[in-house]
Amino acid sequence: MKSLIRERSRSQSPAKPGVISPCGEAAHNELSNILADFNRDGVPVLQGFDIADIPEEAFAYLQWASKQQAIDEFYDWKLLTPEEGSRQAVIRELIFTEADYIKHLMAIVEVFMGAAHALQAKGKLLRIDTSMLFSNIPDVLNASLYLWNYTFVPMIKDALMNSSPFNIDLMREGFALFKDIMLPYEKYLIDQNKLLEYNRQNQKDSEYSIYLSWCHSRRECNRLQLNDFLVKPMQRLTKYGLLLNRIIHYTHNETEEKSLKIMEQTTSTVVTEINRSVRQNEEVEKVIALQKTLENLDCEIKDEEVEKLYNAYGKLNLSAPMLYCLPAHRRTLTHQADLRFRDSAKEARTI
Length: 351
Hints:
Layout: H1 25-41, H2 56-65, H3 68-73, H4 82-121, H5 130-134, H6 137-162, H7 172-175, H8 178-181, H9 183-201, H10 206-217, H11 226-230, H12 232-249, H13 254-293, H14 304-313, E1 340-342, E2 348-350
Antiparallel strand pairs: 1-2
Helix pairs in contact: 1-10, 4-6, 4-12, 6-9, 9-13, 12-13
GO molecular function: guanyl-nucleotide exchange factor activity
Pfam family, one: RhoGEF
InterPro entries: DBL_dom_sf (IPR035899), DH_dom (IPR000219), PKHG5/7 (IPR040181)
C-alpha cells in the first residue's frame, strides 16, 4: 500500500491545553477573515497528503453510491422474491453507509485538517498539535478508499453494467485483504480516547473555538461535531460484521453463505485483535501512570560502589521484563485503592 507522508503540526511544543490564549479582538477578526477567505476560495489542500492511488472510476462509483436514491432506483427491486428483496436491501445499506462513511473521513481531512494546517501556515492556531488531534486519520481514509476499490467497486460495477441485483460474492476477494488493508485503524483506535480528550481540553482556547465553529458550519460536516467524526472509524469497523450477519440471515445458497461467513469471520477477527491491542495499550498506560506515583527510597549511602548499584537497580521499573516470562508479556494493574491503617484506636491514616 502506498505510504502516506503527512505534514506534522507546526507547533511541536504547544502551551498547556485548557488555557485561554492571549488573543485579542483584532486577532479574532484576523482569524475570522482568513476563514471567510476559505469560504470564498475553498479550503487549501492539506500539504503532504497523497490520496489513495485508486482508479478514477472508483471515485465515480463512490459519488454514485453516496446518493441513496441512485442506489434504490437503478433496478426494479419489486421483481425479486420477498426474501431476496430483503437481502438486497441490506446489501444496499452496506454500500450506502460505506460511501457515507468515506465522505465523513474526507470531511475530517479536507475541512478540519486542511483548515488547521492552513491556519497554522498563517500564524494562527499554533497552540494546537494536529498530530494529537487527528492521529493518522489520513491513513485511515486511504485504507477505506482501498477497501472500497477492492471490495465494493467490483460488485457495483457488475450490477450497473448488467442492470442486475448486487452479487455479494464479488466482494469476497476484497474482504480477503481486509486485515492488511485496515492496518492503519489499529493505531488510530489506540489513540482515539486521547484525541477526544485533547479536543475537550482545548475547547476554552478562543482561536480553537472559532476554528471549530467554522468547521462545524461547513456543508461537508452536515451539522456534525468533531467528536462525532472522531468516533466514526470504530463505529464503522464494528458495523461490517453486523451487516454481513444480516445478509447471511437472508442467504440460502450454500456457496454464497459460506463466502459470507468467511467475510464476517475476517472482519470479526480484525475487530477482536484491534480491541485487544487497545486494551493492552490502556493497561500499559495504567502501569506507567502508577509508576509515576511511586517514590524511590531516600537513603544516605556512603559507599560509592553500593551507591552505583543502588542507582542502577534500586528504582522500581514496572515496565522491565519479568522473570520466566516472554518479552511480549506485560504487567497488568488488577486493583488500585487507598491503603488505610490505624496508628492507634482513634487515629486512622490513608496512603
